[in-house]
Design brief:
The protein has 507 residues and is an alpha/beta fold. The chain contains 17 helices and 14 strands. The strands form three sheets. Strands 2-1-3-4-5-6 form a six-stranded parallel beta sheet, sandwiched between helices. The protein has a six-stranded parallel beta sheet with strand order 7-10-11-12-13-14. It has a two-stranded antiparallel ribbon with strand order 8-9. Helix 7 runs parallel beside helix 8. The longest helix has 21 residues.
Length: 507
Amino acid sequence: MKAPLIGAVREQSPATPGRPPLKILLVLPAGEQVRVTPENPKVPRRAMLRFSVLPLTAVAALTPRPHQVRIVDENVEPLDFDAECDVVGISFMTALAPRAYEIAANFRRRGRIVVGGGYHATLCPEDAAPHFDAVVVGDAEGAWERLLADLQRGELQKVYRQPAGSGPVSLGPGRRPECLQTPVPRRDLLRHTARHYATINAVQAGRGCRHNCRYCSVTVFHRRQYRRRPVEDVIGELRSLPGDFIFVDDNIIADRPYALELFRALAPLRKRWVSQCSVLVADDPELLQRMRAAGCCGLFIGLETASEENLAAMNKQFNHTGSYAERLRKIRRAGIGIIAGMIVGMDGDDQRVFEQTLRFLQATRVDAVQVNILTPLPGTPLYADLAQAGRVADHDWSHYDYRHVVFHPAWMTAAELQAGADWLYAQFYRLDRIIWRFARAMFTVGWMPALLALKLGLTYRYDNKREGIVGWNPARRLPAPLSSLSAMRWRSSLPTSFSLCLHIAVL
């Protein structure tokens, strides 16, 4: 089946003439605790934390006819290593690199051609390349099609990159210089597992980010560029979707004129959606009003920390902690729920940060939170700085999942950071607090944001219970003086940072 194409994307040419079509298997690896296997076929009840697999559905749409494509997401179905296929494509982030390498080894032993891509393969190609027959570095558009053509000719190269001219270039009259070319994803390939996702209707209007936060793999991957699709193409795709959807953009308001144009065009569709953006949306009444009128009912916002020192260290001063309360109040008053992204373990944090963060979240009335332990992803400036300072303590990529401590903290021990992060998660998602936030949201932001927060809260609580996350509050066990010598020896002026973005990278 040929995927419909949008905007300036060129018509896909058929597979190499005279060569039989390929059977292609695209795989999304999963961590051990959430992986579905033949021995453990039960899918964990965490659909609210799954929203399609856009990287793979986009790659499937790039695949020329008449090649056959199948997608397996290990989060919702078991992977069969004896599946009939010619090529296996694996898209993965750093925490899933060990599993991706294990999958690749199994298929290569069976004589399959295996291709790696995604964030880790792009930021650490020297680490990934030995495990694959070929790797795609950067976006897949243009590179994936050439790889398949070369493979059919028996001329497969080791590394493929998006060709010059396929990125942010001028595409003629009426096209902006930073126009994003990408096909409509092959969502039809997920129909058999759609019930296990919050939605399979994940849509991308723009890709990348212009900010320069030191932690961020999105900034490095996209070279601090932001590209957006023509509004008419986005609206055309949305018209074809049944029901509500999620924008997976890293910052849906990155380009204000574009966002206003998009929201005006979207409003008549009367769809509801969630996305991610900067807290700066609260400073723009028109943008906020247009966003709500367009159907937005929830935003993931990377607040990161309540410390101005930490924001400065991560090069994210525009957040400005002193205005958080008023900004968040404006967003919720507009009828939009808030899922906050928070980081613990930065160089300005000591054992008291967990209790302080909990009080901050309660005072600002956020509806849900994603707590992340500072994680220096390889390929980012943060990782380079910590490595040079001798503070990277763990090189097991599977621990780079924002839930493990992989470096030496400045003002506490690694055990205290781990316990405190777990305690903060468990405390915020206590059942009584989940119910109270739901009731409050019903009367302040409306039933849809309230329901979203309730479902998220119960899902995070389920995860905590399933994984035995309890922790303890290090501040209640503080000796005097505040920090031990073993923790103080790692203190430095190193700029540290982290923010969880809804990473959307293609193979």
